[in-house]
Design the sequence.
């Protein structure tokens, strides 16, 4: 059995990936410093899988905290989620973002190389494309200068990985560029737990439906899109988690050194903010209080993925219908709020 270390495994995407990995027959070890997560999702993963997963409260910037994990387990691969991810906060605290997001990757790679290398799946983001001139975006679409320190850390991390693979034959890398991950596990035992006021659309919607937020603000209705609201590619978090399993299989099947591949992970279908809001209302038989306001600074008008490379090379594709994803998002919110 292959053992995979999931950094940031107590978080939203990390916890869903832990479940998919265990179901695919992998051994899982989780490391998380709990800076932006608590143990709710870890407990959820245990309930869903029936496994007691080794957990380390560890900061990936700290070699002394990573080394015991590698000493106590044979680690065949790492999925590196642990990072700060709030765009606005990164503008206010750029050094904190560069320190955490870059140092954690470098430290992790150093520890891996010292321990014989292995496979790395890295969480990147569609943010690296900025506003692409042609849609949908392929992996060959040039990256745009980052509009936030957060986005810049994703670009720099991609470059660090590409350089590491050239220098260390023992390391293979798959970079996944996520579009907009949404939804929750169908069990409603794990899901997104944003701290404070959510930045992202779907948690804001579910919290508004739950009465935690007064109303949803729709940021801009004068974009050059069919209904004037921005277009994104919303990918179910369980589908996204499955892409990490496919990425590991890809590296296991690739018998030459020097693998560093990049894949878009989305549905390939654009959806407007307004369409998503309406679909959420219909699927969940409720009515959301919302208001159209001005554009949010830094937002792009439209971005969605060409996923043919992941479909072909990873044999992966998004499967879950949007209706199911939005029902799961609401079931999770109800579960954590105790709403029946
Ligand atoms: C953002 C980040 C992306 C990051 C992702 C997940 C940028 C530009 N965007 O994507 O890098 O990976 O979050 O953390 O770097 N919206 C509203 N009202 C709200 C919230 C959002 O109308 O209350 C709209 C936004 O204007 C946007 C869409 O919903 O058009 C999606 O927003 P959001 O969920 O925040 O994701 P992105 O900004 O696309």
Sequence:
């Amino acid at each position: 059995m292959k053992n995979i270390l999931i950094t940031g495994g107590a978080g939203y995407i990390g916890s869903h990936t832990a479940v998919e990995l265990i179901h695919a027959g992998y051994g899982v070890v989780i490391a998380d410093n709990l800076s932006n997560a608590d143990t709710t999702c870890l407990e959820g993963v245990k309930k869903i899988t029936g496994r007691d997963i080794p957990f380390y409260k560890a900061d990936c910037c700290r070699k002394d905290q990573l080394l015991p994990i590698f000493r106590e387990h044979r680690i065949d691969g790492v999925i590196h989620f642990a990072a700060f991810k709030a765009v606005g906060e990164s503008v206010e605290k750029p050094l904190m973002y560069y320190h955490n997001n870059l140092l954690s990757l470098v430290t992790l790679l150093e520890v891996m190389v010292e321990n014989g290398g292995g496979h790395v799946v890295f969480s990147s983001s569609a943010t690296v494309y900025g506003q692409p001139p042609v849609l949908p975006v392929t992996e060959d679409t040039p990256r745009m200068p980052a509009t936030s320190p957060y986005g810049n850390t994703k670009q720099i991390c991609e470059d660090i990985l590409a350089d590491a693979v050239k220098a260390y034959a023992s390391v293979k890398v798959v970079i996944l560029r996520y579009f907009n991950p949404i939804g929750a596990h169908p069990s409603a035992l794990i899901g997104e737990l944003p701290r404070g006021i959510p930045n992202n659309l779907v948690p804001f919607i579910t919290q508004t439906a739950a009465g935690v937020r007064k109303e949803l603000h729709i940021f801009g209705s004068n974009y050059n899109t069919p209904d004037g609201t921005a277009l994104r590619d919303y990918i179910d978090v369980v589908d996204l988690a499955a892409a990490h399993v496919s990425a590991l299989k890809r590296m296991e099947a690739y018998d030459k050194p020097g693998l560093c591949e990049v894949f878009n992970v989305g549905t390939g279908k654009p959806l407007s903010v307004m369409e998503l809001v309406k679909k959420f209302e219909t699927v969940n038989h409720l009515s959301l209080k919302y208001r159209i306001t001005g554009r949010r600074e830094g937002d792009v008008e439209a971005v969605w993925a060409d996923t043919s490379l992941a479909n072909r090379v990873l044999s992966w594709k998004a499967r879950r219908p949007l209706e199911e994803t939005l029902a799961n998002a609401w079931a999770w919110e109800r579960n954590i709020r105790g709403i029946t």
The mean pLDDT is 97. The two ends are 40 Å apart (CA to CA). DSSP finds eleven helices and 13 strands in the chain.
